[in-house]
Design brief:
Rossmann fold; 900 residues; four-stranded mixed beta sheet; six-stranded parallel beta sheet; 37 helices; globular
């Protein structure tokens, strides 16, 4: 391992981790490779043609000929590119060294000056074409040299330790006793053909396999087949060949899991592989007609543009338009963020403004879909600032949530006396000292640390704000030292001292603040908490808390939205490059057309990706065409992401274009590239009139039109009976009741009452007794769980209100410690097998001389339901009878009416 790491990476733990992570993620390819019995040794053929030096010298001769024709008085170096000018003055030996050390430059730029020599130059067409041929020859020679001298040794070094690495991983998995879904697939594939298991023989399931399932498998159904990995298919194929019927359903345009072995092309070729019939479903039952027509046209354009872009690769991204089952027009709006960005200052403020203006507080069934979790986190911050409630299932660490981030940095200073952590705190968004003040702090590092440690009381800086800040930190440090490191005794004081909740007081801010406080209670010392947070930041215990409110915008990644649908979808299109990702391992594997065995492979560092992807073009060899295809498959998957995002909408679709890739900084139209295909497709939509006669397509510059036309937010229709032939008092009464129920169900006050009822139930569920400690604990848990739903102040007012206190006082017997057993939210099944949850059951056990008592409590914030209590008593009675103790207990029940 050490030799491999030292020779391929800078000494950086993150790079090492990225390399090993890549190797583990690509294990499935290694398993297929070994199963295919393909030789891992590669024959290396040296370059048999001219040397790099010889080709470069000829290029310079051709440049000289062009100079002689076009400008003989000018120096040769004026026709040579900037990077190569000093090459002309080098000795032969120095030139050889230059060539060996400048391979990257030769691959990325031409030797000649593009301003002096280009296609516009007349009279030297032959020489210019010769330059292009020579430059391509040079790059081919360089590519082969790099392949021989860098890539093959890299691959060999990986293969030398890869088995050992996988063995270590397997040992850790056994010790840990936890398997991911990928692990399950991997280990199943690794062992499913083991003769000792007798499950598969010659690629098909055995009779013993059937006996295990105690059934003949006549039919195999596979749903979402487009996400089936190569390994999964190799296992399932053994089942499929022994069944009478195989049904596979999927959509290759929704294949998003190439990173874990999912293969879109496998589904496209499945009918050939299985010699099966193929049927296309051509009707959508999800979206309104206008939305369907729009997405049809967009992705027909994408398919056409993509096909034109890669026509020489042999890949395709086919799109068959679908029909809509609904006639409603729907609503489409394309919003060019570039137009408003200068005015709004923050792209996501445009999204928030759209929500506020168009939906005016009604956020049910709205989803914002973005490519990455980072995008969603930024959106969440803006929504929180605008008091728009949202639901975000975040895996992000709670300590980097904006409400806790600065304070956690300060805690690190307290625990480790780390000046760097103190600087991070002072530069955080909470404090935000400027760069000039930061310089002063750095200059006075020693004196500041002495002052904070109580050793330099006279120290003072020129800036009053920093003096006040340091004084506050000093007081906190004194309290910390007196607490023996116990966080609970001073953590709230820190948040109060810096008025954190005055700056960050959105719903999720409050929830994550209280969750932070809850976490600190589980640790005896600050050092323990910070240590655990640092070594395992992805611990689920440290995950941020999301909102759980019905009237909330759902924030989702594209992957997270797959399979779901929403009335309104706001799709944030923010194409970005993948970056260099240097340090990652790339494992390219070529499979046969039926995905049965490996034909070729190469393992390389990601920095070599560009060299390999151009290998065929530069060398004329077909050996690596599959690598080019693999790179384009990644781009196809990006198209799939767009398709999934835009087809989640049922009624309304907003598309926010964060970066317009159809024009450059000078306003000139750009060439078609993979990351701007959607932009070009949308642009073509707008330039074609008459295709969407019922669907509004416009850009945000025409926003006044949008407001006048309005937006169909909810197509729900109240089904009332107004038949004139059947009009009667009975029908009128029925209609009145429907209207009454409709208004009741959706009135704001009713919804709020339901929410408060749920919250109080939760509070009482966590209230074990009426001691001050238990009351405070139940209150803190409730504020943490629901503080963001009603707002911290309002919820605290309810929980600390006199009405609720009086209710508890009047019913203190149910919180008495005299009860032997207490159950909260006790689940029972009725005679009709329906689940019921009893709010509270109190049990006093029977004795030889006295019957026991079972008391059923039903909390109510609204109307009583006597039948419900009767049902509860009957169910409990039946349970006692089945246990033979019915005569030993008295069953009591009562409502507790909660006032707040």
């Amino acid at each position: 391992f050490k030799e491999f790491l030292d020779s391929n990476f800078e000494k950086n733990v993150d790079n090492y981790a990225a390399a090993f992570k890549s190797i583990l993620a690509e294990r499935w390819k290694y398993l297929v490779l070994k199963e295919s019995a393909l030789s891992l040794e590669k024959r290396i053929t040296q370059n048999s043609g001219r040397s790099k030096f010889e080709i470069i010298e000829e290029i310079l001769l051709v440049i000289g000929k062009i100079r002689d024709v076009k400008g003989p008085t000018r120096a040769l170096e004026s026709y040579v590119g900037e990077k190569y000018k000093h090459y002309l003055d080098l000795s032969s030996e120095e030139k050889l060294n230059f060539v060996d050390n400048s391979t990257t430059d030769f691959l990325e730029s031409n030797i000649w000056n593009g301003r002096s020599i280009n296609t516009r130059l007349k009279g030297v067409d032959g020489e210019y074409n010769q330059l292009l041929i020579l430059m391509n020859e040079l790059r081919g020679v360089i590519s082969v040299d790099i392949y021989i001298n860098e890539i093959i040794p890299y691959e060999k070094s990986v293969l030398e330790f890869i088995d050992e690495l996988y063995n270590i991983y397997d040992e850790l998995k056994v010790k840990e006793g936890k398997l991911s879904f990928q692990d399950v697939t991997m280990y199943t594939f690794k062992h499913y053909k083991d003769e000792k298991l007798n499950l598969f023989k010659e690629g098909e399931i055995t009779e013993y396999f059937k006996q295990i399932f105690d059934s003949k498998i006549t039919t195999l159904f596979i749903d979402e087949f487009q996400d089936t990995s190569v390994l999964q298919w190799k296992i399932l194929k053994g089942v499929a060949t022994k069944t009478k019927n195989v049904f596979c359903v999927g959509d290759e345009k929704q294949s998003l899991y190439g990173w874990r072995g999912g293969e879109k092309e496998l589904f496209e070729k499945l009918s050939i592989i299985l010699n099966a019939e193929e049927e296309n479903l051509d009707t959508s039952y999800r979206s309104d007609k206008g939305v369907i027509e729009f997405t049809n046209k967009v992705f027909q354009n994408c398919s056409k543009l993509y096909g034109e872009n890669i026509e020489n690769i042999g890949l395709k991204w086919d799109f068959l338009p679908v029909k809509a089952s609904k006639e409603e027009s729907g609503y489409i709006e394309i919003i060019d963020g570039e137009v408003l960005l200068a005015e709004m200052g923050n792209f996501y403020e445009i999204v928030a403004e759209t929500l506020l203006n168009k939906f005016q507080g009604n956020y049910k069934e709205i989803a914002i879909i973005a490519r990455t979790g980072k995008d969603l986190s930024e959106i969440a911050t803006v929504l929180s600032d605008n008091k728009i409630s949202y639901i975000l299932k975040s895996k992000s660490n709670i300590f980097i949530h904006r409400v806790n981030d600065a304070i956690f940095k300060l805690l690190k200073y307290l625990a480790y006396n780390s000046f760097f952590s103190l600087l991070e705190f002072l530069r955080s968004d909470l404090i935000m000292i400027d760069s000039e003040l930061l310089k002063d702090v750095l200059k006075n590092e020693k004196d500041i640390l002495l002052y904070l440690n109580g050793e330099n009381e006279a120290f003072i800086m020129e800036d009053d704000r920093i003096n006040q800040m340091l004084s506050t930190i000093k007081k906190i440090k004194i309290k910390y030292n007196e607490s023996d490191g116990k966080i609970e005794s001073f953590i709230i004081d820190i948040f109060s001292a810096f008025e954190v909740l005055k700056k960050y007081n959105g719903n999720t801010d409050i929830k994550n603040y209280y969750r932070f406080l809850e976490i600190t209670k589980d640790y005896d010392s600050l050092g323990d908490l910070i240590f655990k947070a640092d070594i395992n930041p992805n611990n689920p215990e440290f995950a941020q808390v999301s909102m759980e409110e019905s009237n909330s915008v759902t924030l989702s990644t594209i992957h997270g939205s797959k399979g779901l649908e929403y009335d309104t979808v706001i799709y944030i299109h923010n194409p970005s490059s993948n970056g260099n990702n240097n340090g990652e391992l790339n494992f390219y594997l070529e499979l046969d057309s039926n995905f049965e065995y490996a034909k070729n492979f190469i393992i390389c560092n990601s920095k070599h990706r560009k060299i390999i992807s151009n290998f065929k073009e530069r060398t004329g060899k077909d050996d690596f065409e599959y690598i080019i295809r693999e790179e384009y498959k990644k781009n196809q998957e990006e198209l799939n992401n767009w398709y999934v995002a835009m087809t989640r909408a049922k009624k309304n679709l907003f598309i926010f274009l964060k970066n317009d890739k159809t024009v450059d900084s000078n306003g000139k139209e750009t060439d078609l590239k993979n990351n701007n295909i959607l932009h070009h497709a949308l642009k073509n939509i707008e330039n074609i009139s008459g295709i969407l006669d019922r669907t509004k397509v416009n850009r945000v510059e025409n926003e006044s039109e949008n407001d006048e036309e309005g937006i169909e937010l909810n197509n729900r229709v109240l089904e009332l009976n107004f038949s004139p032939l059947q009009l009667s008092e009975e029908i009128l009464t029925e209609n009145r009741e429907k209207i009454k129920n409709e208004f009741s169900e959706f009135s704001i006050s009713t919804e709020e009452s339901k929410t408060i009822g749920t919250i109080i139930h939760y509070y009482l569920e966590n209230l074990n007794s009426l001691t001050s400690e238990d009351i405070e604990s139940a209150k803190m848990k409730t504020l943490s769980q629901y503080g963001g739903v009603l707002g911290y102040s309002k919820l605290k007012e309810i929980l600390e209100g006199e009405s609720l206190k009086q209710t508890l006082e009047n019913n203190k017997n149910i919180f008495s410690k005299e009860w032997d057993i207490v159950y909260n939210e006790y689940e029972v099944m009725t005679k009709n097998n329906e689940l019921r949850r009893i709010d509270k059951i109190l049990i006093k056990k029977h004795t030889e001389s006295e019957k026991g008592i079972i008391k059923i409590i039903d909390y109510k914030t609204g109307e009583k339901d006597e039948e419900q209590l009767t049902e509860y008593r009957e169910v409990i009675g039946d349970n006692l009878k089945s246990e033979g103790v019915f005569d030993k207990y008295n069953i009591e029940s009562s409502f507790i009416m909660i006032k707040y």
